[in-house]
Amino acid sequence: MTNLSELDFSWNQLTSGAESLTRITNLSRLYLSFNELKSLPENISSMTNLSELDLSCNELTNLPKAITSLNNLSGVYLGWNKLKSLPETITSLNNLSELDLYENPHEDPLLEIAEQGIDAIREYFRHKQAGEEKRI
Known about the structure:
By secondary structure, this protein is mostly loops. The protein has one domain (25-129): Ribonuclease Inhibitor (Leucine-rich repeat, LRR (right-handed beta-alpha superhelix), Alpha-Beta Horseshoe). The protein has helices at residues 18-21, 111-114, 118-129, and strands spanning 6-8, 29-31, 52-54, 75-77, 98-100. A 5-stranded parallel beta sheet has the order 1-2-3-4-5, with no helix packed on it. Helix 1 (18-21) links the parallel strand 1 (6-8) and strand 2. The radius of gyration is 15 Å and the shape is globular. 28% of the residues are buried.
């Protein structure tokens, strides 16, 4: 399984076990949508080849900061979870062009900003780090 590049565990009612998947470091696409995951392991940072990560329709309430070390990520799908905030360091993912946050109870950044996409989120956090209030 070391050469596996794509893995789809969607629709499996997984509540845990994502930590064991982090040992498959060659994965470029991981689909875990429509499960019951409440969290992600910190060692997700070992999956440095990931370019696409689908975690939509789970029970996630937060993301580990370690996710921001996955520099190859270009698409992250987090719709229909319970995320209230994102790590500010998400802005360091320079290859990230798609970030789906649909139907999450956003507080930081606000839903109105999150719905505008990754560029608006980057700008929001840039202003926040500078101590400026970002108007919608």
